[in-house]
Amino acid sequence: FTLMGIPGLESQHLWLSVPFSSMFLVILIGNGTILFLVATQPTLHTPMYQLLALLMVVDLVSTLTLVPKMLCLFWFNDRDIAAGACFTQMFFIHGASVVRSALLVAMAFDRYVAVCEPLRYNTILSHALVRRLGLATLAKGALLILPMPLLLQRLTFCHMAIPHTYCDHMAVVKMACHCTRPNRIYGLFVILLVVGLDLLLIGLSYILILQSVLRLNSQDATWKALNTCSAHLFVILVTYVPALFSSITHRIGRNIPPHAHILLANLYLLLPSLLNPIIYGIKTKEIRDKVTKYMCRGT
């Protein structure tokens, strides 16, 4: 296949590489810092931070799968990508999105236990359960996304030039000559299952949290309970709002130019990876204190 980059903005590819390469560096530093802190600080070896560390790993995998090839395209006009590499990139990019969503469900359950069952937190969320939750999220991503490249391998492609910066599933499907209804139906099924079911479970967790918080007599206790969920809520907004906006504009925004769709598709993949460590760094006192300690030690 040949990745065309951003149609209509080919002459601006070099300039576009500046914000994308800057985001790439910030993502590597931010996610790497959180991982380093969780790995080296015993006080952060708790279920919440273990799930957060796994989220950082998924964000790094998604970014490292997406951005290097994009920058090669922008900097060196390296557009060609082998079919196997294309399908592999597709698997890891879309798989990471599914795992990220599943981790947000697991983290919502973590917040529910922390607020509604604080005395039994360590009993319910044991290290063994956290490991099982982590493995379940990875299995969900792999099992749901693996059929996508497998279904594509049965097709013959009439066009090899993909108008995109990466091997997006639907962008590749549109290159096929044969009937692609199974591919389209399965892609829609994955979106509805992941977004619909995961948001339903997250919403249920926060309904139960809100019911528990409203029963508290102390305003300080109410504020403290809500504050424990603030970072997770911000991450949910950063993850789902750009993705839903991109999906809606792709389906109903016929008057929106193609380059806007492609830029949105890249941003909804990169924004969570960019903002997640910043949100947790600002909203979580333990991480903020550890970062401050290392910065002061460095000076």
Automatic annotation (TrEMBL):
Domain G-protein coupled receptors family 1 profile: 30-280
InterPro entries: GPCR_Rhodpsn, GPCR_Rhodpsn_7TM, Olfact_rcpt, OR51/52/56-like
Top-rank lineage group of the source organism: Eukaryota
Membrane-topology descriptor: Multi-pass membrane protein
A molecular function GO annotation: G protein-coupled receptor activity
Pfam families noted in UniProt: 7tm_4 (PF13853)
TM stretches of this protein: 20-39, 51-76, 82-109, 129-150, 185-209, 230-248, 260-280
Role played: Odorant receptor.
This protein's name: G-protein coupled receptors family 1 profile domain-containing protein
